[in-house]
Design a protein that fits this description.
The complex is a heterodimer. By secondary structure, chain A is α+β, with helices and mostly antiparallel strands. Chain A has a 4-stranded antiparallel sheet with strand order 2-3-4-9, with no helix packed on it. In chain A, strands 5-6-7-8 form a 4-stranded antiparallel sheet, with no helix packed on it. In chain A, helix 2 runs antiparallel to helix 3 and helix 3 crosses helix 4. Chain B folds into 3 domains: 88 residues, Ubiquitin-like (UB roll) (Roll), CATH 3.10.20; 93 residues, Elongation Factor Tu (Ef-tu), domain 3 (Beta Barrel), CATH 2.40.30.10; 143 residues, 3-Layer(aba) Sandwich (Rossmann fold). Chain B is built from 7 helices and 19 strands. In chain B, strands 11-10-13-8-9-12 form a 6-stranded antiparallel sheet. A 6-stranded parallel sheet of chain B has the order 17-16-15-14-18-19, with helices on both faces. In chain B, strands 2-1-7-3-5 form a 5-stranded mixed sheet, with helices on one face. In chain B, helix 6 packs parallel to helix 7. The chains are: A alpha+beta, B alpha/beta.
């Protein structure tokens, strides 16, 4: 695919933000961090506020509405933010900035973003892209928890309990969200919830044991991923006061 | 009316009384549903009906611009369930922590009302049952014969409070303020829901306090300073309060601010910022315990606070432009982390 123009270098002041529409493609907010350019989804994942109206100090991007913040290099959430920004890799060529490919669900995801390239590649090689129709069930309570999933597109909901005694267990809707993480934990051999696609969905399926072996080979990445996983699990267990 | 909420992390069920707004029913049940203004402006309490029907009590609410009614979206603070309702909230929702001041719906009598300036009235409500609230919280009030709630922060603080104290600024089309200014309302009964609001102060915080208030945004700051004073917080920590008004005749609470300042003279500084006039020579004679400065409140605070932001927690309240400007200073100049900036925007 030919490189698509995002903006001119002069369009975005140093340590400034600008909303740009890629030719035939998505709207982005482009940040100029000391001459390096970073592109993200144009609106805040919280309440659709344009991020170009936000605050930017050269390293942290802040949505002015509710003070969600992100690392401008990675889109990783900081502080109050509850979701990462979808990142679009940009490349500078002369006085123009181009879209350089699209980040995968693993790249933008909450667990695996910004790992060493070799490790990211090894994890990517384990991922099987799968597509499901609305209503299809991915797993049920008691099924073996061998694989975990990374949402690429669509929507997946969870039900806790069996038969007609069930309770809603939340839902996933953002690219890069990880579920079925029992596959990464010791002592959790089976599913405790059912997972069902609410709409046509695209997922990455990754074998838990294989992913752990890759991370054992890069303990620094393994440590980062486990810290993120602990934070993710804590978020599901937290009370409002702890946040 | 049975209501089920599916949130990003889990589900909740609770009951709503007939006519009770979905948001208030959930909060009353100890479920910390998302909200900010709770009165139809901010759009934070947006939800989506999965099954069942809602009736919108205020289709013209400014916050409606954040929802897509054709997709089943609605504001929980304005809508009532018309039968069993299942709704979806695209946020993480948690149960309130043990010890939280869980809000309830009640009514109270106007026990006192006095005019502080040409367009500001202070009034008190007498509660039938004593209530706990956190310093910085607010309640929503509905006057007799008026539909819709308005949010007002408490000015006072005490455990098991029997009185709630407020200030109200007169607004041209503000239903509640017009009602209050229209006649002597002592003895009238008002519908109330609360306490709610998260821009709260607890003395366990252990940080220096910076309060920036525009106009009637001073209300919640009075509660925070009252709570801190009560616990002698300023024996251990610094406090700065900036109160922005247009001109000295618009000022109120200067007596109360002076008293706090005299009690903790070295550790608590009170500055009145006048945006529309130079500081009159009489001001410093009349209010020797207070400082006065010309400028918008966020500019005055920025000048006075330079180099003093270590270990600071900031509270900001007032009209949205004043709050936004102050937050900009606190993030970009002061480099405070976002969890140390608590704010209420009144619209």
């Amino acid at each position: 695919m030919p490189n698509r123009l995002v903006c001119r270098v002069a369009d975005v002041p140093e340590n400034g933000l600008k909303e740009c529409e890629v030719e035939g493609g998505p709207k982005l907010v482009v940040a100029n961090a000391g001459g390096e350019f970073f592109g993200f989804q144009a609106v805040c994942p919280h309440q659709d506020v344009p991020l170009c109206e936000g605050l930017f100090d050269g390293s942290t991007l802040t949505c002015h509405m509710h003070l969600w913040q992100w690392n401008v290099r990675t889109g990783a959430p900081l502080g109050l933010a509850e979701a990462p920004l979808q990142r679009y890799p940009l490349a500078r060529n002369g006085d123009a900035v181009y879209l350089a490919g699209e980040a995968t669900a693993l790249d933008v995801g909450e667990l695996f973003h910004d790992l060493a390239p070799a490790t990211a590649e090894a994890l990517g090689a384990l991922a099987r892209q799968e597509r499901y129709d609305a209503g299809e069930v991915l797993y049920r309570p008691g099924d073996p928890a061998d694989d975990f999933f990374v949402l690429d597109a669509g929507r997946v909901e969870f039900l806790i309990g069996r038969g007609d005694r069930t309770a809603p267990g939340g839902f996933m809707l953002k690219k890069g969200e990880v579920f079925g993480w029992a596959a990464l934990l010791d002592g959790h051999p089976v599913r405790i919830a059912s997972a069902r696609c609410l709409e046509r969905s695209s997922l990455l399926r990754i074998n838990g044991r294989s992913a752990l072996r890759v991370l054992e080979g890069d303990p620094a990445a393994g440590f980062v991923v486990m810290r993120r996983l602990a934070a993710l699990i804590a978020r599901y267990l937290a009370s409002s006061g702890a946040r | 009316m049975r209501i089920q909420v599916n949130a990003r992390n889990r589900g909740y069920e609770f009951d709503a009384a007939p006519g009770e707004r979905v948001l208030y029913a959930g909060l009353r049940a100890g479920i910390d549903l998302p909200y900010e203004c709770a009165t139809g402006t901010c759009g934070t309490c947006k939800a989506k009906a999965v099954s069942g029907r809602v009736r919108d009590g205020w289709p013209q609410a400014p916050g409606r611009k954040f929802v897509k009614p054709e997709a089943g979206e609605f504001l929980m603070c304005q809508c009532v369930a018309e039968g069993p309702l299942t709704l979806e909230v695209s946020k993480f929702v948690y149960a309130m922590e043990p010890g939280a001041c869980v809000p309830c719906a009640t009514s109270a009598l106007v026990s006192r009302a006095r005019r502080l300036t040409g367009d500001v009235i202070a009034f008190s409500l007498a509660l039938e049952e004593p209530r706990d609230f956190d310093a910085g919280q607010f309640v929503v009030l509905a006057a007799p014969g008026l539909t819709g709630f308005r949010a007002y922060s408490m000015c006072n603080f005490e455990p098991r409070a029997r009185q709630l104290e407020f200030v109200v600024k007169r607004k041209p089309d503000g239903g509640f303020s017009e009602w209050l200014f229209g006649a002597d309302r002592k003895g009238e009964r008002i519908e109330l829901f609360g306490p709610i609001g998260k821009a709260t102060f607890d003395p366990g915080l252990g940080r220096n306090l910076l309060c920036i208030a525009g106009g009637s945004g001073i209300a919640g700051m009075m509660s925070i300073v009252a709570r801190a004073a009560r616990e002698r917080y300023f024996d251990r920590h610094q406090g700065w309060l900036f109160f922005g008004i247009r001109a000295l005749p618009d000022a109120f609470f200067l007596e109360e601010l002076s008293a706090f300042r005299r009690e903790f003279s070295d550790r608590l500084q009170m500055t009145v910022a006048l945006s529309d006039e130079d500081v009159p020579a009489s001001a410093r004679c009349d209010w020797p315990a207070l400082s006065f400065s010309r400028g918008l409140v966020h500019e005055v605070a920025k000048r006075a606070m330079a180099g003093k932001y270590q270990n600071v927690r900031a509270y900001v309240a007032g009209p949205p432009p004043a709050v936004d400007a102050a937050i900009r200073v606190l993030l970009l100049e002061a480099k405070l982390t976002t969890d140390n900036i608590r704010y209420d925007k009144f619209s």
